[in-house]
Amino acid sequence: MGSISKRSKYFDNAKFILIFLVVFGHLISPLKEHDGILFTLYSAIFLFHMPAFILISGYFAKGYKKPGYLKKSVKKILIPYFIFQSIYSVYYYLNGQEDKLNFDLLHPHWTLWFLMSLFCWNLLLYIFAELRWKGLVIAIAFGIGVGYVDHIGSFLSLSRTFVFFPYFLMGYLLNGNQLKRIIRAKYSLPLGILIISVTLLLVGFGFPKDAVPWLLGDTSYANMGGKEVTDGLLRGLQYGVTFIVMFGFLALIPSTQFKLTKIGERTLYIYLFHGFIIKSFQTFIPDERLNSISGNYLLLFIISFLICKILGSYFMKKYTQPLVELKV
Q1: How far is residue 321's CA from residue 316's CA, in Å, rounded to a whole number?
Q2: Average pLDDT for residues 133-153, to the nearest whole number?
Q3: What is the Cα–Cα distance from 328 to 326, expressed in whole angstroms?
Q4: Region of poorest pLDDT, from 62-76, 250-264, 276-290
Q5: 311: which of 56, 194, 270, 277 fits an S-S bond (Cβ 3.0–4.6 Å)?
Q6: What's the rounded Cα separation, in Å, for the pair 163 and 145?
Q7: Which class for 314: exposed (0-12), middle (13-18), buried (19 or more C-beta within 10 A)?
Q8: H helices within 78-211, ranges in order?
Q9: DSSP class of residue 62?
Q10: pTM for this predicted structure
Q11: Average of per-residue pLDDT across 270-287
């Protein structure tokens, strides 16, 4: 893999695959209830794709102590959140999803939770980074404990902020040599293939449909079907499984430069804009038509790939950069 540099082809390849999984997962979300294969893919994807994305984000947050880092985070994360939160408010009103035009900046719309949480994770580094690996244990404890707060939810994306923070902190704590030893060890590739294969088999044969909310991390244990003392143990187990599957995935990522590698640099554009396409499909295409394509897996892959290809293009970045990065 060579050195894991700031503009590493390895990470760009990983981010491209992960953003494809994000788009594909959102595309099949309304279809998964009618197709066992799609449900398996959806559950397996949501088990690790955002944790892996978040870990990579944490890996590149090592300069949080540098002067101007917080100001840069406000410009690159928080202001785009406010902009797109407002745009989504208008969009939901126009497509009939909301009866009233309501600009609520404190409850992130759909995918925008990631920006709100990402800004909070950067702030949390000022506390947890100094604790190093002890901080990771505490972060996991917070992630488990927050599930017992009955009214935790989408407000400021607090639930997801605490549930997913351990992955961000893990990414920050890992240095390039440590990550390289883990994902490029002699047996990492075959072990990664085995982990992903076993995960798909276990999810396909044994993952209950009512357990999907556990993968989203957006609400309390009580709101997922009843608060039990043992729920914390289940989330702890989920952390362990997710870490294993996540590193199994990362072990499969090549470091070679491909034509699609460049799109890995523009995943934020795909993330922010793909929701308008997916939501338009769900709004304007009749349910029976959507259900009719649920078994056409190749078509669903092609649609997801085209969305990534178009939204991750240089053309898209050129004309939307003022909106996304506040650059003219």
Answers
A1: 8
A2: 93
A3: 7
A4: 276-290
A5: 270
A6: 9
A7: exposed
A8: 79-94, 113-128, 132-145, 158-173, 176-183, 188-206
A9: T
A10: 0.91
A11: 86
